[in-house]
Amino acid sequence: MDNSELWQSVLAQMQLFISKANFATWFQNTEITSKENGKIVISVPNAFSKEWLNNKYYKLILKTMHDIDNTIKELEFKINPQPSKNFETKEKLESDINIEQLKFDEFKINKETNLNPRYTFENFVVGGFNELAHAAALAVSENPGHTYNPLFIYGGVGLGKTHLMQSIGNKIASNNKKNKVKYIPSEKLVSNIVSAIRSNSMESFKASFTPIDVLIIDDIQFISGKNKSQEEFFHVFNSLYEKNKQIILSSDRPPNAISELEERLKSRFGGGMTIDVSLPDYETRLVILKTKLQEKNMELPEDILEYIASNVKKNIRDLEGALNSLLIYHKINNNVLNLEVAKKLLRGFVFSPFDVANYKKIIETVAKFYNLDEKNLFDQTRRKEIVRPRQIAMFLLRKELKYSFPAIARKFGGKDHTTVIYAYKKILQESEENNKLTEELNLIKQKVYSG
Ligand code: ADP
Ligand code: MG
């Protein structure tokens, strides 16, 4: 790959991370002018760009380049006011690529409902990993308020929760224009509650929910620890529920595993249908890729699709991201994409240092999941709320990282390694018998691997 190809593929990937307007502002008239001893020099048109790129995008650009070529270690931005030949590339980028077609169209979000029309049942791929959630979602969309209320969907990042919930909303809204649907991410809900408290307008805030027939709150786990918001939301929830209005919630974990959530909310959230989405298998990943291509009316060689499906396994968001970055490259370079180039371009998706489980991540994730400080896991105590997470941490170190039992024992303050063996066997055996534990282990693993 020469410098210009390298820069083009960086630009293609940057477009996935930043808005079109920012992209045009900061990457206009930039190019690689030299590459020596792991150092890349990028020319930029003015001091302003230089400062901005250095401060804001240095790491992202470096990581993207490093993923393509791991000899690259350092970047330097140099001011070069001459419009360069790269101008042509830029023009080409802007005119040829219909970014809107490749990417999410943020501008089409319905102002009334906050729903994105792109999320529908028609373009939602169903497989063993999500078929129950899909069936429940369909049932709710056909008979809102009366089938499952609330519908609570949980699972790791990028597995289709938002897509599924919004599909329900879109379907209900289109079935009957009179249905009032509202989609609210929970951060937004919390910030609205906070400002209603500040401005003394809680009554009118609550009243704004009265006409709603279907309320969708995404990522409700963020309400954890926000006591005031929990209290107000409890009332909103109840008044809708009592009128048989449909409530749909999503979270990264089941209601009873959300820490610092009032008991009464846990029981309300879990009082309808609680259902998970997990990871798609290879076959389904391939179907998802083909569905996305069809939607965009584009094509890629089969071997490349198979390569993506067998290597990008973390979640569907990444699967889509990988596909998009290849498509952009494919277009810029006049359809000369082969498997070798694709492999290079996808390094960041296939192998990223962040994807790999390590000791620190396992400890961090287990502690966080059970709402403990990391150091608690190492406390010399037999308290059940510590012993259990500690055993799970030991189990995962063995299972995921293949640590030896004595090595684990050393990490946990020189315990006898038979204690570790005992912990490992206990968790292994229990996970075979106990669904709740299996579910917890899966959620922890998803987090460990999803960065
Ligand atoms: P989550 O809310 O679980 O983090 P999203 O719903 O945002 O995940 O999904 C991430 C991306 O993957 C979205 O672009 C979505 O359209 C796509 N996606 C997820 N699940 C599916 C599916 N089953 N079929 C097609 N696309 C999917
Ligand atoms: Mg989501």
Question: How would you explain this protein's 3D organization?
Answer:
By secondary structure, the protein is α/β, with parallel strands linked by helices. It folds into 4 domains: 3-96, GMP Synthetase, Chain A, domain 3 (2-Layer Sandwich), CATH 3.30.300; 107-276, 3-Layer(aba) Sandwich (Rossmann fold), CATH 3.40.50; 282-354, Helicase, Ruva Protein, domain 3, CATH 1.10.8; 356-449, Chromosomal Replication Initiator Protein Dnaa, Chain: A, CATH 1.10.1750.10. Helices cover 55% and strands 9% of the residues. The protein is built from 21 helices and 8 strands. It has helices at 3-17, 20-27, 47-68, 86-96, 99-102, 131-142, 161-175, 186-198, 202-207, 227-242, 263-269, 282-296, 302-311, 316-332, 339-345, 347-350, 359-369, 384-401, 405-411, 417-433, 435-449; strands at residues 31-36, 39-44, 74-79, 151-154, 181-185, 214-218, 246-251, 273-276. The strands form 2 sheets. The protein has a 5-stranded parallel β-sheet, with helices on both faces. The protein has a 3-stranded mixed β-sheet with strand order 1-2-3. A hairpin with a 2-residue loop joins β1 and β2 (39-44). The radius of gyration is 25 Å and the shape is globular. The relative contact order is 0.09. Mean pLDDT is 87; it is low at 83-104. The chain binds adenosine-5'-diphosphate (ADP) and magnesium ion (MG). Residues 331-451 are annotated as: Domain IV, binds dsDNA. Residues 1-89 are annotated as: Domain I, interacts with DnaA modulators. ATP binds at residues 158, 160-162. Belongs to the DnaA family. Residues 147-279 form the AAA+ ATPase domain.
